[in-house]
Each structure stands twice: as structure tokens, then as C-alpha cells.
Amino acid sequence: MYKKICWILLVAVCLLFSGCWNPFSPPRATSKKPVFLDRSTPEGLLFALVYTYNHKDIDGYLACLADSFRFEFARTDSSYLWEQGIFQLWWGKDKEELATRNLFIERQSIELTLATTSWYKWQSDTTIQWTRRYYTLSLDGSPPDEISGYATFFVKQGTDLLWQIIRWVDEAKL
């Protein structure tokens, strides 16, 4: 009887300290590995922009933007922006980060698509290239929303040989 009670106590203690660990189940990875996003070409940069936006990857998104980044709203949006308390038609990287973080938090899913077109060299500085793309931005949540129109991206290759967006001119009507 004494041996039986000792065995039951031993098994109970082993179960108590083992928790939910299963020796026959290998551990699962808890963090997702970042996808390699090649910003060594202007087209790769825009692919990275779309990927990071759609996956709500704020750090990846900010890496696509130069420190001197400037987002310019469409001039036709000035009355809407004024109603929202935005009195300039552009903002820098710091406000872009804040606005994008809030968007990523507030919306359940985001889908940005960019049409493919050609790249052009900037006339006064051949290290800068630009493209004008038709885009659609679908925002799931409350309320659902879809914005579409044209955007012009000005990109420049950095000293690390990676391309970054220096200026994004939005031409969609809000």
C-alpha cells in the first residue's frame, strides 16, 4: 500500500511540474521570419512598399522612406484637409509614421495595389528616378473604404545602394 501511494505521488508531482510539455511534439516557431525585400532597384522598392503596407509592417514601411521623405496631398483635398485640422498640403516622415501607425492599428486589413509603368530619370538630378502609378487602397474595417487615383513616386539610391522614396505626391481625391 505504501509503495502504491508513493508511485501515485511521484506521478502526480511529475505531472504537476511537467505542465503542458509534450516530449513527442517539437517546439513551434513563435515569430515570423521577415521576408527578404530587395530595395536594390526602384521597382523592388515599390514591391517592398506594397508588401510592407499590406502586411502592416511599420518598420519595413519606414525603411522604404528616406529621412528627408515628403508626402504631398492632392491640391483638390485642401478643403477636406482643412476640416481635419491639417493646414499644410504636405508632411514629413515623422507625421507619415504617426498616420501610418494609426492606420495599421485602426484597420483590420489593408490592400494596396500599384499598376506597373515605366521609370524616368529626373532631368536636373540623374540619381533621382520617378514614376506615376495608378493605385488602389482598400481598407477593411469600420467603415470600409477604398481610395484610388494616381501617385507619383520620386526615389533615390542611398549610399548603402538601396533605393528609398524621397517624395510621394498623391493625386487621388478624398
Please outline what is shown here.
32% of the residues lie in helices and 30% in strands. The protein has 174 residues and is an alpha+beta fold.
How are the elements arranged and paired?
Elements lengths: L1 H17 L23 H13 L3 H6 L1 E8 L5 H6 L6 E3 H14 L2 E6 L5 E2 L6 E13 L4 E13 L5 E8 L4
Parallel strand pairs: 1-7
Antiparallel strand pairs: 1-2, 3-5, 4-5, 5-6, 6-7
Report what the structure shows.
Helices cover 32% and strands 30% of the residues. It has five helices and seven strands, in the order αααβαβαβββββ. Strands 1, 2, 3, 4, 5, 6 and 7 form a seven-stranded mixed sheet that branches. The mean pLDDT is 81.
Bin the helical content.
25-40%
Low-confidence stretches: none
Tell me the structural class: alpha+beta
List the secondary-structure elements in sequence, H or E.
HHHEHEHEEEEE
Residue-averaged pLDDT: 81
How far the N terminus sits from the C terminus, by CA atoms, comes to 81 Å
Q: Quick one: overall form?
A: globular
Kindly provide the radius of gyration, computed on alpha-carbon positions and rounded to a whole number of angstroms: 25 Å
Largest sheet: 7 strands, mixed
What is the β-strand count?
A: 7
How much strand content do the residues show? 25-35%
Tally of helical runs: 5
